[in-house]
């Protein structure tokens, strides 16, 4: 895929230079961190919701901004004190595909696990009014997100699969993309995020000048999930827009608590947060970002396993005192993913 291969190789080589940091770190100065995304996206709001819920259980989880999904995926593998990250599921799929052919990439992917499936992220394409379809982006100046972001990956795949070739693929953040679109420096930009996302609530987006493009290419609908952004989701949007979506997931790492003190602390951090999310899930749905209401904790993406430290936190015997209390999940089974499904169904209902 154009652009993606180079970004993947560069990011993974940087990560591989850091992988030794994950193992031998001492527990002294230990932190719990979650990599999210930019300041206006849904990832960071979800991270804050999880952090707020954890605080009620006396668990401090720091929310960190990032470029997005690809950086987040590799960050879980390579960065110290980074036990969680929110990642788009197509990153998982394509990393697995490339890892089968690349030994070094396989090393970077090894040990990464699922904590929880989250919500579907809509592919937003904000464009000038005279650009009516995805195919009309051919020959235009299009921002596809910053390198290492999930938007960059998905936008690159969408354009390639739909056989659309802009005159220029610009790599900008969502905020910079909006500024350049308003200034007529670019013609459209991609942003992959759960709707509603705050950047499109800007009063500067004039409905007479700009609109969201429908993303209805049959090839894309075969790869991604078909969905719609309802009318009125954003101030400039009077009609529903048919698009495609990709699932966001919460990633973690397969820490071995018997390996060293750092792994033991990190495994406990994963277990603590897993317990928080499962037992306070209803509160997250009622008081968190609206996308929590669309989360199905049993909808695991294929090809990836749940971490053992996650299942530890779902155990009925796991002890974590939380403000307000919560019912414990049911007993475990043998397979890690069957354990996960059973415990989640017990905790939140299926």
Automatic annotation (TrEMBL):
SUPFAM superfamilies with a match to the protein in the record: Periplasmic binding protein-like II
Keyword Cell division among UniProt keywords: no
InterPro entries assigned: TRAP_TAXI (IPR011852)
Keywords for this protein: Receptor
Keyword tRNA-binding: no
Name of the featured protein: TRAP transporter solute receptor, TAXI family
């Amino acid at each position: 895929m154009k652009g993606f291969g180079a970004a993947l190789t560069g990011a993974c080589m940087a990560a591989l230079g850091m992988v030794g940091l994950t193992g031998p770190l001492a527990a002294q100065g230990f932190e719990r961190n979650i990599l999210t995304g930019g300041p206006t996206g849904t990832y960071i709001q979800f991270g804050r919701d999880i952090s707020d819920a954890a605080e009620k259980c006396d668990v401090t989880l720091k929310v960190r901004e990032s470029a997005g999904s690809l950086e987040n995926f590799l960050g879980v593998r390579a960065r110290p004190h980074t036990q969680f990250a929110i990642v788009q599921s197509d990153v998982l799929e394509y990393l697995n595909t490339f890892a089968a052919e690349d030994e070094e990439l396989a090393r970077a992917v090894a040990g990464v696990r699922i904590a929880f499936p989250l919500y579907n992220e809509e592919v937003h394409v904000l464009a000038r009014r005279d650009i009516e379809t995805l195919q009309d982006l051919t020959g235009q100046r299009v921002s596809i997100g910053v390198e290492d972001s999930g938007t960059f990956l998905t936008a690159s795949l969408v354009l390639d699969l739909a056989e659309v070739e802009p005159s220029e693929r610009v790599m900008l953040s969502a905020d910079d993309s909006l500024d350049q679109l308003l200034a007529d420096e670019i013609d459209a930009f991609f942003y992959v995020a759960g709707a509603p996302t705050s950047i499109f609530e800007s009063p500067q987006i004039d409905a007479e000048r700009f609109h969201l493009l429908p993303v209805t290419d049959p090839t894309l609908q075969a790869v991604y999930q078909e969905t719609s952004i309802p009318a009125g989701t954003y101030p400039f949007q009077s009609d529903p827009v048919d698009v495609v979506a990709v699932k966001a997931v919460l990633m973690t790492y397969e820490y071995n608590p018997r390996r060293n003190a750092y792994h033991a602390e990190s495994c406990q951090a994963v277990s603590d947060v897993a317990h928080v999310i499962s037992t306070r899930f209803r509160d997250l749905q009622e008081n968190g970002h609206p996308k929590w209401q669309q989360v199905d904790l049993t909808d695991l993406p294929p090809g990836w396993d749940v971490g053992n430290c996650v299942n530890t936190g779902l155990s009925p015997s796991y002890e974590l005192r939380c403000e307000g209390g919560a019912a414990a999940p049911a007993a475990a089974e043998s397979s890690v993913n069957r354990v996960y499904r059973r415990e989640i169904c017990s905790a939140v209902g299926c």
